[in-house]
Write a structure and sequence with these properties.
Radius of gyration: 19 Å
Distance between the termini: 22 Å
Helix content: over 70%
Order of helices and strands: HHHHHHHHHHHH
Structural class: mainly alpha
Largest sheet: none
Mean pLDDT: 85
Number of helices: 12
Shape: globular
Oligomer: single chain
Low-confidence stretches: none
Length: 294
């Protein structure tokens, strides 16, 4: 286990301990606050990462990238408005791969593509379904709010078992095929036990916030800092935050307007996840390119 992983485990259980002192509404508010801070921050330097990936400081190239990035966000919002079921499905699939890729970044370029992609995707999807299966009714309601489709209660457990089976088979194969992967596989299986305890013992938003911030957003920020500045330091973190500030403020402004419009309606949850999806699609692509470049 890495040093940061040990810190994440302690912080996760500390967050779980705090759960017993907070009302459900306070957990939701605090969870959203964390997502709006580190969660959005970890995707706010995508354009700078693209610029470094392309090894160019040409203003025209940067402007072209910005247009493409914004276009993807607009298309995502368009899909959620006109084809919400397809947009939500795409969001879950892209998020699954993005989460798994962050967790298994050591695999990239070192092992066959089918091993890397299968483990990353099934691991990330298993984490999401693990969260869903402990909060099935709430998840079904959010899906209905977004798509107006009422899914069968059998779907989530079925997908959970199928994804778990594929992930486990791939891990067993990799465990015996690649000796140097054994420690990583055992660590990640242990983390899944930690996630199970957290998701089962907390509310949907609070459990997602603990995972999203401690196990995804902050590690992603650290990886991005190493890619952009080669080393980790408080000075570089300040530079990272400063360069991300404009995008972050625009995102906060946008979601704040939506909150004040829909704060008294159940549909805000649906709008929030739609907003999160719109900024996730281009970000996931950028991070994939970053890992390949590294």
């Amino acid at each position: 286990m890495t040093k940061y992983s040990n810190i994440s485990i302690v912080a996760s259980f500390f967050g779980l301990w705090l759960d017993s002192f907070f009302s459900k509404q306070f957990q939701i508010n605090l969870g959203f606050l964390l997502i709006f801070s580190f969660g959005i921050l970890h995707g706010a330097n995508d354009l700078i990462i693209v610029e470094k990936n392309n090894n160019t400081k040409n203003p025209f190239s940067f402007f072209k990238t910005l247009i493409i990035y914004l276009l993807i966000v607009m298309i995502s919002a368009f899909l959620f408005y006109f084809i919400p079921w397809f947009a939500l499905l795409l969001f879950i699939l892209v998020s699954a791969f993005h989460f798994g890729e962050q967790q298994w970044k050591e695999l990239i370029s070192n092992y066959p593509n089918w091993i890397c992609n299968t483990i990353a995707f099934t691991y990330g999807l298993f984490i999401l379904l693990l969260l869903f299966i402990f909060h099935t009714n709430e998840v079904e309601n959010i899906i209905f709010e977004i798509t107006k489709i009422r899914i069968s209660p059998l779907y989530i457990p079925l997908l959970f078992r199928l994804t778990g089976y594929v992930f486990l088979v791939t891990c067993v194969y990799s465990f015996y095929k690649y000796f140097d992967l054994r420690g990583k596989i055992l660590n990640e299986l242990f983390y899944l036990i930690v996630f199970t305890i957290i998701f089962k013992s907390s509310s949907l938003i609070w459990g997602f916030s603990i995972y999203f911030i401690l196990w995804h957003s902050i590690p992603s920020i650290l990886e991005q800092m190493k890619f952009l500045y080669t080393d980790l330091s408080m000075q570089n973190f300040k530079i990272y935050c400063k360069s991300a500030s404009l995008y972050w403020l625009i995102s906060i402004f946008g979601i704040s307007i939506l909150y004040f419009i829909f704060k008294d309606q159940q549909i805000f949850n649906a709008i929030f996840f739609s907003f999160l999806a719109a900024i996730t699609f281009p970000h996931a692509f950028v991070i994939t390119k970053m890992f390949k470049k590294k």
